[in-house]
Specification:
By secondary structure, this protein is mainly beta. It contains 2 helices and 12 strands, in the order αβββαβββββββββ. 5% of the residues lie in helices and 26% in strands.
Length: 239
């Protein structure tokens, strides 16, 4: 069980500019331990989930759900891994990967077994990632898809020849204890919702970050939540 007494990691910086202390358990678990978390929206308490849970889907987007139904929970559609993906200058970058439709790594000795390995030498599981459209947020098309790097459409592939370009995010810890997602391909935008509407089944989009900094705004903040916190309503945090 993950408790507040587990480890003293005071002032651990995981994306800045705000230092994270040992009591921000879910943020530490998501960004350091790569534990799956539920991403709960600051405004209405809804959570992010892929529009399509099946592992074979690579051209559907992300939406905000307000009820955790059994089918979504069984498929782990409410869970996300925030996986390290390198650095942009001094800032760490991350992939937002869905736990829904995760593919078990091929066994050792097969042709695809070396697609990627973790620090312990074991093959990494294949997870669908949140991918940004090259023309977002100007495009009227879907600006986010959940899919494997090699299976998303051309406009969701890397702008500079690297597939991962459109799947890397700056994850910023905000002063109010949440996190904001900024795509490196569109640094003037943050993860938000179509027509700026935060409601049931709202489609996730990139929206311009009118605030002008990496912390975004309250309405575009997400709270990582561990299993023990899934039943806690957080939409009242700022009231």
């Amino acid at each position: 069980m993950y408790t507040q007494e587990r480890t003293a990691m005071a002032n651990l910086v995981v994306g800045g500019p705000v230092a994270v202390n040992s009591y921000d358990n879910a943020i530490v678990a998501a960004l350091v331990e790569n534990r799956p978390v539920m991403l709960v929206h600051a405004f209405n308490g809804g959570y992010l989930r892929p529009a399509e849970l099946a592992a074979s889907s690579h051209d559907k987007g992300v939406k905000l759900a307000t009820a955790l139904d059994p089918a979504t929970k069984d498929a782990q559609g409410h869970l996300w891994h925030i996986t390290p993906g390198g650095f942009f200058g001094q800032r760490p970058l991350y992939f937002i990967e869905s736990a829904a439709g995760q593919v078990t790594p091929p066994p050792a000795g097969t042709a695809d077994a070396d697609a990627g390995r973790g620090d312990d030498g074991t093959p990494k599981p294949q997870r669908r990632r949140v991918t940004v459209h090259q023309d977002a947020p100007q495009s009227t098309a879907d600006t986010l898809q959940v899919g494997l790097p090699g299976k998303v459409a051309d406009k969701w592939r890397g702008k500079n020849g690297a597939v991962e370009d459109t799947q890397l995010w700056v994850v910023t810890v905000t002063p109010w204890g949440g996190i904001t997602f900024v795509p490196i391909t569109h640094p003037d935008a943050i993860l938000g919702f179509k027509d700026h509407t935060v409601a049931k089944d709202s489609e996730a989009r990139l929206t311009y970050n009118w605030g002008g900094d990496f912390t975004g705004t309250v309405i575009n903040t997400f709270y990582p939540r561990l299993p023990s916190e899934w039943d806690v309503p957080y939409h009242h945090v700022f009231t």
